[in-house]
Structures are given as structure tokens and as C-alpha cells.
Amino acid sequence: MDKNSAWSFLDSAAEALELPADVVAGAPLVELVGKRELRMDNHRGILSYGSEEISVSGGRILVRIRGRGLELSAMSEHSLLIRGEIAAVELE
Amino acid sequence: MTNIVHFLLGSVRIEVNGRFPERFLNLCGEEKVAFWDLRRGENGALSVCVGAHRVHRCRKLARRALCELRVTGGAGLPSFLLGLRRRYALLTGLACALIGALVLSQFVLVVRVEGNRRLSDSVILTELERQGFGPGRYAPGVDRRALANEVLRHLPQLSFLSVNISGVLATVVVREADPEPELEDRWAPGDVVAAADGVVVAVDPVVGQAAVEEGEAVLSGELLISGDERQAAGDGSGAILSTTQVRAEGRVRAMTRRVLRCVTPLSVTVPEPSGEPERIYALRLGKRAWQLGRESRFFDQSCVKMEKNWKLPLPGGLVWTRKTLTPFRLRRARVSKKSAKKLLRQRLEERLTELMGGSGQVQEQTLVFSEADGVLHATLTASCLEDIGVMVAREAGSER
């Protein structure tokens, strides 16, 4: 079983058992506080950084934050905090 | 709070340049290296602030991320202090101040006395100075126990003395000795005698035998209740079988006549300012003092001077003092006769109350004023009903 299949299985299991996927499957948890602060747990690292766009890896998905004056305020192994004028959050 | 911590620990701005500078950020996140104020440079490099102590760690992380790290600036206390390392005059001054503070702190500059009530500070400080302890004394060279013992030996009014030296301040804590109580032998035989002249109104002996009767006139010092208890023979012959010496007790009430006199002058000398006050400034360090400015013009004059002193403690044990001298001349002023009479009346009545004690009653009193040679005389004549008996212990072996 490759990695993607394992995540998919854990996702499905979490959904079936009505358990939080971020805890069971380690799925990324994105929290938006207003339009000036974004918190993300279970990230897999920053892929690109700029004041207008920040791309963060969430494992199987890519979270792209667009806006103006974006700034990575804090970052740890599992969580990060982005501040600035957030215009859009895209998932790929 | 975070800003204060960053300032105290110091922070460094680094620039990370390479193919994947974001990889450096991810490594920082993994390795728990805190960073802040992240900016993207025009050349694609990332510029971040990290703690000054994490630079070495960041270099390793940058190498792992295949990036190049460059320190572009520093901020905070360590950077500020490092910036001063070439200012030799400042460093020399700082070192001198530090050495001066270290050396001066070894000397006692202020001596404070605590715990005294009856004995004044100046008496204790004078005795301490006589023993060689005072402002300017090298503190480590003071044998505090010997000093305390010597002072206690010379000042018997003190029961305890301790010298505590903290920096330039010496605190002398004292405890005063309690005065020795008068010892009274409550079993020693004695008699009750008259404390004043008078006519006895009532005799009430509790212990001993009455020596006077009601209506009898007595003089001061005369025996009222004898401490000799005689046992008479029961056959009516009047023969004394035995005599026992006891401590006589009892109450003898008598009519007395008290005559008290008091005088007061009707003019007094009062000071009056005769010129402008003058201020003299001086700088004091320990026992030494340096006067600033010219000598006082009042020192040579034979006028009366009133001094007022003011002190301002300065760093390093220095004290800035200001002495204000005001010249005065004396002139005679007349006292109001009414207030003089009031004063004399008050004094005489207080004296009479004191003489009679708590149980005395004034039956009749007259107060006469007369004036002679600028002095007001007052004579108080009072008839009083009071207890005149006082116990007088007998000397060993004596008998009345």
C-alpha cells in the first residue's frame, strides 16, 4: 500500500467512524480568523513564499494563500501562522 | 514581552539565498528555531530575524537546504554593547566608576542609630567615634564584637548593641537597659509619721498602735502610728509583757494649712531679626567638609545667630548641606499682667494638688498677688483636709 492509498484509507475510516480526520489521518487543518490571520496544522512545509502568495504543502493537497502583505508570523514542525490581508485560500 | 526578550537576548537579521530558501524555513520549523519578520528580497532571497544565539544553528540548516546564509545586521543589547567596544574613553570611565563604587562600598559613610529612646543618638555616636568607628572607617577592618563590648562597657545605659554594616551604611541597633527598681522590704518594721503640720481629724490604724488622738495638733515628722505593738498583762496592772515590732499601717486624716509662693517676671527678652538671612553651602564627605563660597559675614559679629541646617544626600556618600544664618537682636518685651496671673495661679494649684496627693480636699483658699521690682509675686494660702501619714521604715535595731 503506497502513501496516498494509506491516507485515503485513513480518511475514509475517519469519515465512517465520525472521527476527526486531522487527528486520525493527519489531514491538514486550516483555520481562518477573519481575513487577516490563517492558522494551519499538520502542514508538510512551505513550498513557496512571497508577500502576495504563500504555498504550503498539506500532504496530498496544496494550500495556496493569496493576498497582500502576507507574512509568516510563526512556524513549527506541525503548525504555522500567516498574517496579512488574505484574499483567497485555494486547494489543489 | 516578546520584544523585551528579543532585545535582551539580541537578534540578528540573516539573508538566506539559494535555490529553495523555503526549505530553510521548513527546517527551522522542524528544528524549533524561532524566526520572525520574514521578508522576500528582490533577488529571491529570504530575510528573517533570529535570536543572536541561533545563528550558528541557522548556518547548519542553511547548508542542509543548499542555501547561503549572510548576516546583514544585528539589534538588541548584545549588539549595542559590542558597538561600544571601540569607545575607549567610555569604557575607561565605566571601569573607573565600577572600581570607585567597589572601593567606596568598602568604607562606612553613613552611621545610623536605631532602638534608643532615652539615650540620644549623639551620645552613642560620640562613644562609637571615641572607639574609632564612624564615617570613613574601612568596614572589613572593624571588629564588631569588640567594638560593641567596648561601647557597652562605657555606656551602662545600654544593655545590647549590634553593628550591622551593609554597603556604606552602618546600622547600630541598641537596646537600653531597664533602670533598676527600688527594692522595698515589705516586712521591715516601721512607723507612720506626719508628712505635714496639721490638726488630726481621724486616726485609723490597721497595723500598729495609734500614737495621737483626734483633735491633737502634730508637726511634720511626728509619730502618728507606732510600729511597736505592746502586749499588756491581763490583770489590769498595766504591765507590758512583750513588745513586737511591726510595719505600721493606717490612715491619719488632718486639717492642714498650706502656704505656697511663686514669682514671675513681668518683662521677658525676645529675639528680633536684625538683618537678612545668609546661606552657606558646603559639601560633606564623612567627617570632611568643603565650604563653597565666601566666609559668613556674621562670624565676626557679636550678634545672636539662629542656625537652620538642611541636608541632601548625594551618590557616593556625599552630602550637600545648606546652613541658614539669621542675625537677631534681643529686646525687652512686657508680659501681660493678666496672663502672668493666670500662669501663677495654674502653677500654684498644680503644686498644691501635688502636695496633697489624690485624697486631699481643699476646704478654703486665698490667692494674693503683689508686684515689686518688675516681678509679680503670688501667695496661695489653703486649708486642706488630707492624709498626712507616711510610712517610714526603721533602721535595723532602732526603736521609737
Describe what you observe in this structure.
Helix content of chain A is 20%, strand content 51%. By secondary structure, chain A is of the alpha+beta class. Chain A has a single domain, classed as Sandwich (Immunoglobulin-like), CATH 2.60.40. In chain A, a hairpin with a 3-residue loop joins strand 1 and strand 2. Chain B is α+β, with helices and mostly antiparallel strands. Chain B folds into five domains: 81 residues, Alpha-Beta Plaits; 67 residues, membrane protein fhac (Ubiquitin-like (UB roll), Roll); 63 residues, no CATH class; 62 residues; 64 residues, no CATH class. Helix content of chain B is 23%, strand content 45%. A five-stranded antiparallel β-sheet of chain B has the order 11-9-15-22-21. In chain B, strands 16, 17, 18, 19 and 20 form a five-stranded antiparallel β-sheet that branches. Chain B has a four-stranded antiparallel β-sheet with strand order 2-3-1-4. The relative contact order of chain B is 0.10. Chains A and B meet through strand 3 and strand 5 of A and helix 2 and strand 2 of B.
Could you give a quick summary of the protein structure above?
The complex is a heterodimer of chains A (92) and B (400). With 92 residues, chain A is an alpha+beta fold. Chain A has helices at 3-16, 21-24; strands at 29-33, 37-41, 45-49, 53-57, 62-75, 79-91.
**Strand order across the biggest sheet of chain A?**
1-2-6-5-4-3
Calculate the terminal CA-CA distance of chain B, rounded to whole Å.
Answer: 94 Å
Q: Total number of β-strand segments of chain B?
A: 23
Number of domains of chain A: 1
Helical element count of chain A? 2
The Rg value of chain A, from CA coordinates, equals 14 Å
Instruction: Give the overall shape of chain B.
Output: elongated
Rg of chain B from C-alpha positions?
44 Å
The secondary-structure class of chain A comes to alpha+beta
CATH third-level topology of the largest domain in chain B = Alpha-Beta Plaits
- Parts with pLDDT < 50 across at least 5 consecutive residues of chain A: none
Helix residue percentage of chain B: 10-25%
